[in-house]
Every structure is written in C-alpha cells, then in structure tokens.
Design goal:
The complex is a heterodimer. By secondary structure, chain A is mostly helical. Chain A has 15 helices and 4 strands. Classes of the chains: A mainly alpha, B mainly alpha. Chain B: Belongs to the binding-protein-dependent transport system permease family. LivHM subfamily.
Chain lengths: 330, 288
C-alpha cells in the first residue's frame, strides 16, 4: 500500500520535467522584480538568445553525431534578414520574422541536402565555408548590410501597445521564446522521432536497420536547428536595435559548439548550463584579459578529456556511481 | 599583350599560394589518415611557424638559413606535444569528441600565441633577394620561386618517406587498417604521434614560407589553414596527390577570381567553389 508520502514522491518523480520547467519559469517570472541591475539582466537575455541557437545545435550534434561549424551564419541571416526587412523595406516586424525563419529553412536545406549525404568533416567544412561566405558578404556588401560598421536603427518588437524596449521587457520576451524552445526540444527527444535520433547518434547502421530514415532525420534536425538560430538572430537584432558582423563570425560558431560540449552533447538541460557558463565566463575572468582565450580552450579540452559527456551529465553520472558503489559496499 | 602578361602574373601568384595550401592540406591528410579526424590545430601550426621564424630572426638574431629549419623543428615539437598532452589522454575515442578536442587545442594555442607575441602585426624579411625578374613581361619574385622549389622538394621527400622508410610504411599501414597494423606489431600509438609531428612540420613549413609574403599575427593561420582544409577536401580528403592538386587548383582559382572579378570577395570564391564541388562531386577530385 502506498503511503501519502510515497504518492507525493511518485507524483514528483513522474512529473519531474514539467515541474522543473514550471519552477524555472516561475523564477524567471519574478527575477526582474529582484534584479534591478540592467547589465545583469542584459547578460541573462543574451543567454536566452544564445540558448535558442545552442538548443537546436545540441539536438543536431548530440542526436545525429554531425558537426556544424556554421550556426553563426544562420544566426546572421535571422538578424540581418529582420534588420533589412523591417528597416530598409519598412515591412511589419512579426511577419518579417516568420518570413526570415522560412527563408532560413530553405537555405539550410540547400546547404544541408548535399552535404549531409556525406559524413563528418564534409559537413563541418561545408558549414564553416558557408559561415565564411556569409560573414564576408556582411562585411563587403556595405550598401545593403552597413559593412563593418554595422546596421543601426532596427525597430523594437511590439505586441499592440506593448513595446519591448528595455531590459526587463526583453527579459520576458526572450525567455518566453527560450522556454518554449526548451519544451519543444524536450518533447522532441522523448517522442518516437527523438528515440530514432538517439539510435542514430549511437550507431548509424543499426538505426538504419531498425528503419530510421537516417538522411531524412538528419536533414530535419539540421533545418530545425537553423530555424531556431535564425529566430534567435531576429530577436537579437530587435532587442539591440543594432547588429554588426562581429557577432556572426566563425569564432562565434565555434563558441556555440563549445556551449554544446560543455553542457553535454545530447543533454537538453545541459544546454542551458553550458550556454550560461560560456556566456558568463568572460565576465568573471575579465581581470585575466590575456588569459581569457587560453582558459576558454582549456575548459573545453579538460571537459572533453575527462568528462566527454559534458559537465552536467558527467557530474550527475559520477555522483550516481558513487552512490551505487556506496550501496554495494554496505 | 597586356592581357597575356596579366594572366601569366595571376597564374604564377595562384600557383605560389596554391603550393602553400597544398602543404597545409597534406598536414590535414596525414593526421586524418592515421586517426580519422580533422585536426583543427593544423591552422595554428601555420601561424606558429611564422611566429617562431620571427623570434629566431629578431629575438635571437639568427640568420635565415638557421632560423627557418629551427622554426619548422619547433612546430614539429609542438605537434608532438599536442598529440601527447591533448589527444592521447582522451578517455573517449569517439571522433566527435576528438575533433572538438582539436578545436579546443587550437583555441589554447592561439591564446598562447597572443600572450607571447601580442596582437600586433609583424613582418618578416623575404627568404631570398626581393628583386623581381621577368618572364614574358610578368614580374616574378625569387621568393615565389623559392616557395615552389621547397614545396616540390618536400613533396618528393614525402613520397620517398611513405614508400621507402619503415615509419612511412607503418603510417600507411595504420592508415589503411589500424587493427591489422596492430596485429602485425606496428606501434600504432607511436605512429599517431609521428603523424602529428609530420603535420606540425608541414604546417610550420607553410607558415615560414608564407610569412615573408603576408604580415604575421597570431591568427594569420586561421584563414590560410581553412583554405588548406578546403584544398584537402577539394582533392578528396586523405588523398596526397589530391591535396596537391586541390591546393594548386584553389590557389589558381583564387588568384584568377581576384584578378578578373573582385579582390573583396577573393576569400569567398574559394569556399563557393568548394561548396559547389561538394555538391557535384562530393568525394573530391581524386577521391575514391
């Protein structure tokens, strides 16, 4: 017979994901009431925007075992697409965002379809090359993109009379998107599609034998991740009202990959952690300016060497093993 | 006549740069063949070659003939250290993990270079006399001829190494089938370390050869290295003749597109063509 306490624990266990999402949402809801420093809010908003990119990228890397070193390019298409659509052409903001997301899906399809026929480094190269092409266009085609000095005067997002024009309002806007994307990804990896993907990441041949359409699955996830990146780019452009090529180079793509690895490839929750850590790290080690890059790289190397599943999964696993060993000895 | 003279000039410049790309591409191939991964630290081997050359010339006051081989040797040592400290201790043999490791190592190396040599751009004097001579009206720098000759020599030495020496043959054995190589008693671990040493040497050599032509800074190798990577893929990843063909092809393409189209988009041309080649003939020009 289950006691009330058992029932409560069972309920908590059964709904742990939903409850965690609910808890985080609640914290996010009240946080701006406590945190009055706009700089800190700004950092947290940046984490939400990056998390949108990294969630998709982590699905792609963690669940298809492929590498994209070009997600900053999709981020750029979202940002500049929104900027040019709303400013140069004066079109309404929300429809432009949707159109840009759709256009990005087509671009991702064009890049991914041929490259995904091949394995590993071909896609890495194709996406990296694509990123370099996009970046060069942003810098060189200055009549359209504003060139190296950037593109200013992008309108804020608004819902009716509510204009998202300060850090607190951005907070609610970007974290709503981030939490929705988180829920989407959590649901996706638990669905049949997600289990197929997990099989794919584990062993491609075995997955194919079990009837997973490998190519189709890879392309779908790639396009989804590109669309999320574009969405993040649009939000980025409308929140800062200004974009410049610096935010979209290949090293930004590499940073996105680092966020995935630090959080744990294939770990949706790890994504939030990895994104936050890598975004905040430069703030914490500002005094060590000249050691910043070395530290950045060392963290990546050490995690890959000793906790290749990422920090969150790695530490959780280590604790579980410790507990299991303890029980065994007792 | 001007048209032909220009064309000749562009072709020569293209082949010179292409030779550098080929050296870098060969470095990528060596590691790929033995470990099966793309080594992103290859791009930093190129920068390091230039940096060590600069230090040898200006910090130690060595003459070029001494500084150049020393610089290449120093990058070989870095290559070995990268394998020993960064790749070998890995708990996971998953390719994804190993590739990300090389990305991490690349960031660390760039950070160290920034710390040691600073962010400023530096210049290195030419390897040989810089008075150009003329062929059919096109001005050609002795420097470029030196690059071509050294590259050609290195390729000949590499062919000899892979077909006539024990270590070279062992590397080819590991490349074609690692398990079988292990069974017949080839020390696979040492061969992998050797492949990193060789990759360091090739990258370092590319670095010392290119630095007198361009200016030098801690991240100069990134774009050069990525073009070397593109060249390797263009030729068919892992294929040595492909790497050379891909390098020269890419160099020519870049130089011609800069000459006849726009130098602003010179860097793009290489990657656009690369993407097109991937789409049309995904295994590269010489791939199987």
């Amino acid at each position: 017979m289950m006691t009330t306490r058992d029932k409560l624990f069972y309920f908590l266990y059964l709904h742990r994901t939903g409850l965690t999402v609910f808890g985080i949402s609640l914290l996010l809801l009240v946080w701006p009431l406590v945190e009055r420093n706009p700089y800190n809010l700004g950092l947290s908003n940046l984490i939400a925007i990056y998390a949108l990119v990294v969630l998709g990228l982590n699905l792609f890397i963690g669940y298809t075992g492929q590498i994209s070193l070009g997600h900053a390019a999709f981020f750029a298409i979202g940002a500049y697409g929104s900027a040019i659509g709303t400013t140069t052409f004066g079109l309404p903001v929300w429809p432009v965002m949707v159109a840009v997301a759709l256009a990005t899906a087509l671009v991702a399809l064009a890049v991914g379809l041929p490259a995904l026929k091949l394995s590993g480094h071909y896609l890495a190269m194709a996406t990296l090359g694509f990123n370099i092409v996009v970046y060069t266009i942003l810098v060189q085609w200055d009549v359209v993109t504003g060139g190296p000095s950037g593109f200013a005067g992008i309108p804020y997002l608004a819902i009716g009379p509510l204009v998202f024009d300060n850090e607190v309002r951005f907070h609610y806007l970007v974290w709503t998107f981030a939490m929705l994307a988180l829920l989407l990804c959590l649901n996706l990896v638990r669905s049949g599609v997600g289990r197929g993907l997990a099989a794919l990441a584990e062993d491609e041949t075995a997955a194919a034998a079990l009837g997973v359409d490998i190519r189709r699955a890879k392309i779908k996830v790639f396009v989804l991740s590109a669309v999320l990146a574009a969405l993040a780019g649009s939000l980025f452009a409308h929140c800062y009202a200004f974009v410049s090529p610096d935010s979209f180079g290949i090293f930004v793509s590499v940073d996105f990959v680092i966020m995935v690895v630090v959080g744990g490839m294939g770990s949706i929750w790890g994504t939030l952690f990895g994104t936050a850590l890598i975004t905040l790290l430069p703030e914490w080690i500002e005094s060590l300016e000249s050691f910043k890059d070395i530290l950045h790289g060392l963290i990546l190397v050490l995690i890959l060497l000793f906790l290749p599943q990422g920090l969150v999964t790695g530490i959780v696993d280590a604790i579980r093993t410790r507990i299991a060993v303890g029980r065994h000895h007792a | 006549m001007g048209g032909f003279q220009d064309l000749l000039q562009f072709i020569f410049a293209g082949i010179t740069n292409g030779a550098i790309y080929a050296l870098i591409a060969l470095g990528f191939c060596v590691v790929h063949n033995t470990i099966g991964i793309v080594n992103f630290a290859q791009v930093d081997f190129v920068s390091l070659g230039g940096m060590f050359l600069f230090s040898g010339l200006f910090w130690s006051g060595l003459p070029m003939v001494v500084a150049l081989p020393l610089a290449v040797g120093a990058v070989v040592a870095v290559g070995i250290a990268v394998e020993r400290l960064g790749i070998r201790p890995s708990r996971s043999q998953n390719h994804l993990v190993l590739i990300f490791l090389t990305i991490g190592i690349s960031i660390v190396l760039r950070g160290i270079m920034k710390l040691v040599w600073g962010k400023n751009r530096m210049a290195v004097p030419p390897l040989v006399d810089d008075i150009p001579f003329r062929i059919a009206g096109a001005a050609i720098l002795p420097q470029a001829v030196a690059i071509l000759m050294i590259t050609a020599l290195v390729i000949v030495l590499l062919v000899f190494f892979f077909h006539r020496t024990r270590l070279g043959l062992a590397m080819r054995a590991v490349a074609s089938n690692q398990t079988a190589a292990m069974v017949v008693g080839i020390p696979v671990g040492r061969v992998k370390a050797a492949s990193f040493a060789l990759a360091g040497g090739l990258g370092g050599l590319a670095g010392v050869l290119i630095t007198p032509i361009t200016t030098l800074s801690y991240d100069v190798g990134v774009l050069l290295g990525l073009k070397g990577f593109a060249a390797a893929i263009l030729g068919g990843f892992g294929s040595f003749p492909g790497a050379i063909l891909g390098g020269v092809g890419l160099g020519l393409l870049e130089s011609l597109s800069a000459g006849y189209w726009s130098s602003d988009y010179k860097d793009v041309a290489a990657f656009v063509v690369l993407l097109l080649v991937l789409f049309i003939r995904p295994k590269g020009l010489m791939g199987k």
